[in-house]
Inverse folding.
């Protein structure tokens, strides 16, 4: 096919959780790429900041329920634009061929810490519905009993990861040095969410003002 270099995005700690189908597939693919001898780079990721918008930011603004867990798992979220930029840098460096890199954000966050940050930036409290991880595990066991609920069981397999007290983060100093990247250029979660809420709240304020200007009274 004329592939010059193959970039595979995997998941941090995937080798530690073979009970999670997606993580098992990722790890198996990592090993397969090594065996093929294909010119490649494997990049493990911890979490995307963009995913937090629909999961927490939007429901809080719309005063809808926010679903969380009591798990202590921490995730170092990263902006997808930073991930893309670091990936392009890695592609241009021949000394990184065949290497396994892990990209992580500046800080690892728990679910409750993310919700608290969104509450502060939105200026309103969240309607949090906390689901104990033990409930997720029991639900997964029940859904595995039926073939038609296997997909649900696979998704709930991540509850095993939540109960493992895993920290999805790694020190990035060596990676930044290898890529020649400046860690100061990496967006923090605070900055990312601050920009999002500032833009959204400004738009909502402008829309409210426009609505008042166009009101017609008889």
């Amino acid at each position: 096919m004329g592939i010059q270099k193959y970039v595979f995005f995997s998941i941090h700690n995937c080798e530690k959780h073979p009970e999670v189908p997606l993580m098992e597939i990722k790890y198996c693919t990592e090993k397969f790429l090594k065996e093929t001898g294909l010119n490649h780079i494997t990049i493990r990721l911890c979490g995307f900041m963009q995913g937090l918008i629909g999961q927490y930011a939007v429901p809080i603004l719309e005063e809808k329920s926010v679903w969380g867990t009591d798990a202590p798992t921490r995730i170092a979220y990263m902006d997808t634009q930073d991930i893309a930029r670091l990936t392009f840098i890695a592609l241009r460096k021949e000394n990184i061929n065949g290497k396994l890199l892990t990209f992580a954000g500046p800080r690892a966050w728990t679910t409750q810490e993310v919700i608290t940050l969104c509450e502060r930036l939105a200026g309103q409290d969240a309607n949090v519905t906390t689901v104990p991880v033990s409930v997720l595990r029991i639900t997964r066991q029940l859904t595995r009993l039926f073939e038609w609920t296997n997909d649900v069981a696979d998704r709930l397999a991540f509850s095993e990861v939540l109960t493992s007290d895993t920290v999805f983060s790694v020190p990035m100093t060596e990676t930044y040095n290898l890529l020649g990247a400046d860690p100061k250029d990496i967006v923090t979660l605070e900055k990312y969410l601050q920009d999002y809420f500032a833009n959204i709240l400004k738009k909502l304020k402008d829309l409210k003002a426009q609505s008042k200007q166009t009101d017609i009274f008889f």
